[in-house]
Amino acid sequence: MRRAATGMLVLMAAIFILSGRYLAVHPAWGYVHAFAEAAMVGGLADWFAVTALFRRPLGLPIPHTAIIPENKDRIADTMADFLRSNFLTPQVVARRMGTMNFAGAVGSYLADPRAAQDARIRAGAGDLAVEVLESLDPDRLGTQVRSGIAAQIEKLEIAPLLGGMLDAMIADGRHKPLIDKIIRWAGLVLEDNEALVRDMVHKRANAVLRFTGLDERLANSVIDGLYKLLAEVLVDPEHPLRDKIEEGLEELAKGLREDPEMQERVERLKSELLTNPAIADWWQGVWERIRARLIRSIKESGGVGPSYLGETLGELGAALRDDHRLQLQVNRFARRTAVGISTRYGDQIVQLVSETVRRWDATTLTDRVEGAVGRDLQFIRINGTLVGGLVGLTIHGLSTFLF
Asked: Name one GO cellular component term (predicted).
């Protein structure tokens, strides 16, 4: 564009010289001559104006030239103030974010099967997850997670919740498999503790039974009777003992929901468990195993992550795309986050812009600005040449008509 503008200026100069030789031949040459003369003036004036923005025309120390290099620091401060006043104010950020459906856009992208299967997305998510999991202090993070969970559980009334869950299980008949498991568990406990049962029978038997050896037969009868009872309860859905167990579960559910004394005992037990160091150590071990397993799973897949990672991203995208209430919550969170960032870090952001521009040398700044807007500035030279020529043509015509 610079060559085109300069070429047009050279063309006007050639026309000016050529038309000057034929002024006496015909009056029309006077119009051509006036057009070319004014076009040269307009083109040269705009060349000077455009050049003076970036450097000194012809290297001459003309005042108020090389404006951008000479005022680099002031331009940096002005740019920073402009960004701070017009873009990074909480009102502007909130208004702009209010018109964006950020969650919907992200959801539509992630829900696209091609995006969910894109190895680059999965690799990026996997690498980010590994870096986060490896960079965080396991003990500190585990303690923070445990403290957060404990704080939430501490606020929660466990007893009514457990009572409601137990009621729902009984109403839906889902407690029956639980009873079967309890019976099987009782059988395993009895099997592991047969020696303890025999010892109890021996200690409670009198001397005559021990002398005659009947205590051993009595112990065997007790153990066989317990095994038989458990087997009958397990195979018979209508066994009376099952009804007793169900009645006990119903009473327990009612007590958990309505009995203040039982609720207090449950809350006390909950507090004791939460403050028990053994529970803290157990949770720390659980968290560390989860963390190590996640890291190993992602690394073993070559950084792409397990296959379910893409499925999870797709499901998350579908939820964000289709659930308008979730979109509203995510968009509200994004808006508040952006406003918070602009409020808290707006000054640091514009300071970064200002310091970056200040660190540029004059040549770098000039080249970058000229590379961004130079093409349009060369159009100014072309337009100046044409407009100057038209003005000169108009003036020549008026002077010929009036004088």
From this structure: plasma membrane
